[in-house]
Every structure is written in structure tokens, then in C-alpha cells.
Design a protein that fits this description.
The complex is a heterodimer of chains A (about 230) and B (about 230).
Chain A (H helix, E strand, L loop, with lengths): L1 H14 L2 H34 L5 H11 L4 H12 L15 H37 L4 H11 L1 H16 L3 H7 L9 H10 L3 H28 L1
Helix pairs in contact in A: 1-10, 2-5, 2-7, 3-5, 4-5, 4-8, 5-6, 5-7, 5-8, 7-10, 9-10
Chain B lengths: L1 E10 L2 E10 L5 E5 L6 H8 L7 E6 L2 E2 L7 E4 L10 H11 L4 H14 L15 H13 L5 E5 L7 H18 L2 E5 L3 H7 L2 E6 L2 E7 H6 L4 H7 L4
Parallel strand pairs in B: 3-8, 3-9, 6-7, 7-8
Antiparallel strand pairs in B: 1-2, 1-4, 4-5, 9-10
């Protein structure tokens, strides 16, 4: 069955099936947007927590590390309740069952991962990098930028880890996206749907496409990381 | 130049520096020696502006020092090299000071030659050995032509060959470019070989200072004598 699935997935990709490419495009759009937003929020926050000593820091650290393992279904449920007709923002804007809702859920899943990995990277090297930069005449801002440059491998690792988590999750996007064909259907929700329909071959083929996609994105980021 | 006025500092109500006053003169190499816990590293952090003294003031050209200044560079114990090429490490201090590209290139060539680093220029700094790394770190610290160079145990963990190289390069560049050097070292012989003036710290007090030769041959304080003879 695996061999057949592999052949089917290759056929699917080669045949240029429009719906498949739309699903791949949507999966990439949702997950990459979520990771970019999580990076924009999580990297500065992670650097701040890693650099500063403040009251309650250890509690914040524990919370971040706990949130790194948030169950996607639980996050999906919270976002669902927040965005639903009876939620607090419904009178202003209704976002449930849209790609935006899926991005919000994935940002919540990805952000603690980006923060956690960033904090580890910062704690490991920040003091020595900042002290060296300052000792060579760098201003505070220049020293911080040097720190970002020195930590780039750690920061890319944070983004890769977060991407791996959100591209493969199904619980949250299923709940808040609703798996609407042509609108919120992504690779993972399509796999669930095909499995429920008993179409195992296609489900496996989609799974292999997901794996291939994840492999390609990770390979690109890793090669960039080591080329730098 | 740099002046310390009644510097005192404490951690958790324990005084580690007590009323230290001293004026560093331009162009000389100063060695700071003393037993473990004498307050050498704390003094270094205060005079570089990394830490503020609880009491007293640090003056630079008559102005009170509030933070690190551009005329000063530091080379810390077990120096950290940025994860980039050797030449980019050497250019770092010049870039953050906004030197023009032409001036940077000219200075880079001079420093590479001066420290015999031509063949290392394009190597990744992380691939260097401890001795080579220390040489690059010293070259990087003098590249921006600082007026004051602060060194914290510059030869810690180095073999005799690299230690000798570092000391000779330090003396040469300091004389050529008129750089004032303040060097903390636990190695008495190193202070003797390199420093023009030596300060001896004990229990947070500046016990004695003066010409290195005088301090080692005719110490005025009993504590200095004991430290030099290995009794303290």
C-alpha cells in the first residue's frame, strides 16, 4: 500500500492536479504566515526574556516551556470560542472558518516554540557576545544587532521547529478553519477527510506530499543556515 | 586620561573595593595584580563602564564616565570571536565606529601584517586554535586605534610561545601607537615582563603602586612583599 501511495503521490504531483496545488499553496500560506508572525513576536520577546532579569522570570520561563507543548485541539477550541458568534470580537469582525482564523491558531502554537528556543539560544551566549561587542566600542543597539547575527543559527532553528509543528498539526486548523473545500482545506485536514472516506491511498499520498514539503522547506532553511 | 576617584563597590553588603583612587597616564602599560578575590575583575568592569561603582567616580578626560566609550577597547579573558571570518572580526571595531571603507581596508592590511595574520584573513574565526584566537582578539582590540586598551588575563590558558608572542606584540603596538594599556593578570612574571607600572590590590584595597621594577624589587608594603614571595 505504501509503494502504491508513493506512486499515487508522484502521479498527483506530476499530473498537475489543480486542487492539490491549491491545497499545498494554502497550507504553505497559512503555516509560513503563522511562523513569520510568530517569529516577529517570539524572537524579540524571547530575546527580552533571555536578556533581562525581572521578578517572576522563572514563572514566565515555566509558562513558555509548558506552552511549547500546547495541544492543538485545545488551542483550536480557545480560538474557536474567541472568534465565534458569541465571542468578544464577533460584533467587530467575524473570522471563524477563514484562513485568518487558522493563522491565528497556528501563531498561538508556534509563538511559544519560537520564544523557548530563542531564550535557550540567548541564555547560552548573550552575555559574552554583548560584553565583547561593547568592549570593542559598539553601542547598545549595535551590540544587540551583533547578538542577533551571532544567534542566527539558533533563531533559524526556532523558526524551523515552529514550522515543523504547525505544518503538521490538524486539530486547531480543523476546528477554526472548518475544512471548507477551496477555502480552508489544507493538507492535514484533507488527509483526515480522505481517511474518513476510506480513500487511504489518496490520504497516504497527501501525507507523503506533506512530508516532502516539510523536507524541502527544512532543507532550504538548513542550507541557508550553513551557507551563512 | 582615566582617573579613579575614591571607588568603592559592594556585592550583597560586602565591600569588594575600598576607596580606590588612581590616575592612569597616557602611553604606559599598567599591570594590575593581586590574589584571588582582591577585586581586580570588579575594578576592570567599573573602569570600562560595564558596571557602576556604588561610591566614587571614574573620569575620562575630565568627564565622568557613564558607559563604555569609543576611545577604549577591551579584550576579555578567554576572548570570544564572532562567528565570521577573521578579517570581519578585525573590522568589527572599525565598522561600529563608522570608519570609511577605504580607511577600513587600509587599517585591515596594516593589522594583518602587524600581527602576521595575512594567511588567516579569510578563515572562519571559529576554526582557530586558542593561541591563534587570542592573537586575533588582540589584533581586533587594537585595530580601531584605541587610546586605552583593557586586557583581562590576556594570556590565560596560552602556551609559552603564544604568551611570548602576545606580550611582545602588545609592547610593540602600545609604544608605536601610544596606547595606554591596563592589564589584569594573575601571572606576576607577565606583569614584570610587560608592565611599566604595577598596581597591587589586596582585599579590595590598592595596597601599593609604582614602577614595576621598584614594586617587585623594593616593595614598600608587607602584603606586597608576601604576595610577591608567594606567602600570600
Amino acid at each position: 500500500m505504501l509503494l502504491e501511495a508513493f506512486r499515487s503521490s508522484l502521479n498527483l504531483i506530476i499530473s498537475g492536479d489543480v486542487e492539490l496545488y491549491r491545497i499545498i499553496g494554502r497550507s504553505l500560506y497559512v503555516s509560513l504566515t503563522a511562523v513569520l508572525i510568530a517569529g516577529a513576536l517570539g524572537i524579540p520577546c524571547g530575546m527580552g526574556i533571555g536578556l533581562k532579569d525581572f521578578p517572576g522570570r522563572s514563572l514566565v520561563l515555566k509558562l513558555v516551556y509548558v506552552c511549547m507543548g500546547l495541544p492543538p485541539v485545545f488551542v483550536g477550541l480557545l480560538v474557536f470560542l474567541f472568534l465565534s458568534r458569541s465571542g468578544p470580537i464577533a460584533p467587530v469582525i467575524y473570522l471563524l472558518f477563514t484562513p485568518t482564523a487558522m493563522i491565528i491558531a497556528q501563531v498561538i502554537l508556534a509563538c511559544p516554540i519560537v520564544m523557548g528556543v530563542t531564550i535557550s539560544a540567548v541564555e547560552d551566549r548573550a552575555q559574552i557576545v554583548l560584553r565583547t561587542a561593547a568592549g570593542l566600542g559598539a553601542s547598545r543597539l549595535q551590540a544587540l544587532w551583533t547578538l542577533v547575527e551571532e544567534l542566527k543559527i539558533g533563531l533559524v532553528t526556532a523558526l524551523i521547529t515552529a514550522f515543523g509543528r504547525v505544518i503538521a498539526e490538524v486539530g486547531a486548523v480543523m476546528l477554526v478553519g472548518g475544512d471548507i473545500e477551496g477555502y480552508t482545506r489544507v493538507l492535514t485536514t484533507a488527509i483526515v477527510l480522505e481517511t474518513r472516506k476510506g480513500n487511504f491511498s489518496l490520504a497516504l499520498a497527501l501525507g507523503l506530499v506533506l512530508l516532502l514539503l516539510s523536507f524541502l522547506i527544512n532543507s532550504l532553511l538548513y542550507s541557508w543556515q550553513y551557507r551563512r | 586620561m582615566l582617573e579613579l576617584k575614591k571607588i568603592s563597590h559592594c556585592y550583597n553588603k560586602q565591600w569588594v573595593l575600598k576607596e580606590i583612587s588612581f590616575q592612569f597616564k597616557p602611553g604606559l602599560i599598567y599591570g594590575i595584580i593581586g590574589p584571588n578575590g582582591a577585586g581586580k575583575s570588579t575594578l576592570l568592569r567599573i573602569l570600562t563602564g560595564i558596571e557602576r561603582a556604588k561610591e566614587g567616580q571614574v573620569f575620562w578626560d575630565g568627564q565622568e564616565l557613564a558607559a563604555s566609550i569609543k576611545e577604549m577597547t577591551c579584550m576579555w579573558q578567554k576572548p570570544y570571536l564572532f562567528q565570521r571570518k577573521v578579517k570581519d572580526n578585525l573590522l568589527y571595531g572599525l565598522k561600529v565606529r563608522g570608519w570609511s571603507k577605504d580607511k577600513r581596508e587600509e587599517r585591515l592590511l596594516y593589522i594583518l601584517k602587524k600581527f602576521h595574520l595575512e594567511e588567516y584573513a579569510l578563515r572562519d574565526a571559529v576554526s582557530l586554535s586558542g593561541g591563534e584566537g587570542a592573537r586575533v582578539a588582540l589584533a581586533r582590540a587594537v585595530a580601531p586605534q584605541p587610546r586605552l586598551l583593557v586586557l583581562d588575563e590576556p594570556a590565560a590558558n596560552l602556551d609559552p610561545f603564544h604568551t611570548a608572542y602576545l606580550e611582545s606584540a602588545l609592547r610593540e603596538i602600545s609604544r608605536e601607537e601610544g596606547i595606554t594599556v591596563i592589564m589584569v593578570t594573575h601571572d606576576l612574571f607577565q606583569a614584570k615582563r610587560v608592565a611599566d607600572q604595577t598596581l597591587f590590590l589586596a582585599e579590595g584595597v590598592l595596597e601599593e603602586y609604582g614602577r614595576t621594577e621598584d614594586l617587585f624589587t623594593r616593595p614598600r608594603s608587607e602584603k606586597t612583599r608576601k604576595f610577591i614571595s608567594g606567602e600570600l
